[in-house]
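Example record

The entry below shows one chain as it appears in the dataset: sequence first, then structure tokens.
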Amino acid sequence: MTPISKTTQIYLFFLISLLLSACGRSKKIDVSNIHVDAKIERFDKEFGEMRTKPMAQQAAYLEKKYGVFYRDFIALILQDQDINIRDTSYFSLLRQVFANQAYNDLKHDVDSVYPDIDKPQEELTDAFRHVKYYFPQKKLPRVYAYFSGFEAQSIVGDGYFGVGLDLFLGGDSRFYPALTKSYPHYLSRNFNKQNIVPRIVEGMAREDMYPESDSNKTLLSKMIYNGKIMYFMDQVLPDVPDTTKIGYTGAQLKWCKDFESKIWAYFLDENLLYETDYPKIQKYLTEAPFTPGLGEKNESAPKLAVWTGWQIVREYMEKHPEVTLPKLMANTDAQKILNESKYRPK
């Protein structure tokens, strides 16, 4: 038998360690036998048929098929929350929308980027199977695709999740440079097909299954809450990169990993964990191009409290393999999770 060289031994040890680490974190499971076939229904296409079909007839069809979503969408696109869909006077406003060149330009691009939605639908099926694995009793929402003139990337309602395809056209879409006031580049660079399912899963977790409690006032409680949401995404989306889940560039993720211990030390040294003044802590939680006061030449990543909370929850779950995902999500004791994570980045 040919002896294994020392270099090869070191390589194999590194590879095995890497694989074990990856397996422990992702907890990849087989969900192929869970019978879920998710469908992203193309409301946008059927809504567009109101231009060519008798409007009253198509409106009645859409209201019957899509229920409350139809009313919510009409209120959104016409920017009138008091709209009465029983009163057909709003048809004249819809005709104005359909006659507008901007609407037709946007419809052209949505149809070009999404002639079908097969790939996101396959990814959503896998994600929903994972949700059912961890939460067998969860009633999955119906998912509708729409576009609204850049009003909303998603709508979460009673039993449904709406996906605004006009805010998933790709970071290089011709429309986004004119929208930088509402959607600066650090946001629009993530407006692509790969982000559809992660945003659905995150929206389900945040808005439907585990909305944040009003009692979460301290940065620590918000940190752990967001960390649990991110860990939820880890388990439901095991093949999605961390950069996509949190919305970082590769350089931003590397910066966080390189300076993890210094980020944690900063939170401790500045006595921020138990701070409740939201204007003071919001810069560590919200979307931004970078975090002011940290890093050189604006190279720091944003949402550092979200990222740090994520690492704390990951450490906690690695140390407590007996804790299921539902038990983790139901645990509101942020201090206990921090203590038992023994989070000490080096």
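Notes for this example: Strands lie at 40-41, 142-146, 154-157, 160-164. The longest strand covers residues 142-146.
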